[in-house]
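Moderator note: this is an archived Q&A kept for reference. The question asked for a predicted structure of one protein chain; the sequence and the answer are reproduced below.
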Amino acid sequence: MIDTLMLRKQVDESPCCFAGYKDSNYIFQYSNAEYAKVVGLKHPLDVVGGTAYDMPSRTAECAALFHAQDDKVIELKKHLNIFGIHPDVDDSFRAFNHVKAPLFDRSNNVIGVFFTSKNITSKATSELSLFLRKMPIITSGKILLDSGCYLIGKDHLEIDMSNREHEILFYLLRRKKAKYIAGLLSITPRTVYKHMESLRRKFNVRTSSELRDAASEMGLVDVLPPSIFNEKTSIYLNQR
């Protein structure tokens, strides 16, 4: 059992734009009015009992993706921090920061997913989205996200690395050269090479090509360093 009154209070008092929770079968149990509006419904109770596939707005096109994210939250028993670009009820595309967390019963079994979403549409996120979509990468390993969704932060990495190493790996996976990375991060190419050497040791590989392959196999293409969420970086990415 879970305390539904407490959960509903958390949803109603959430500082984020949208909030709600689902059971382990993806069925909405409650949402706030803002979420109902963005998916094209008049009242939050209209959301209850349906899944993402049942929503009248174009967000239903992303239902399979949302359900895959929910499955991962339940499997890992930890939260996911996600950057997503999705169609809105008025057919415009907006950027969101989604946070999905597991719901536990008193026996510590995961019985659902609590979600919050914050609208972060801006010039910076628009520029970032353009860059990410211009750099298609094919991976043969496990791919959690697609269609404009990316995980945010080191919590989703299987290899222990510093914030700087994560930044450099992000650009290496998009085949950026050391000189480019150095200019973007305001460090020297020599410093970039030192971090690349450290990454090769941690991934137990010998070359940058093997490093990219190993990281891609782990699905790290879809994991973004938080530092790229600023206007200066986003604009720079599209100018080079």
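Archived answer notes: The beta strands are 18-23, 28-31, 80-87, 93-104, 110-119, 149-152, 223-224.
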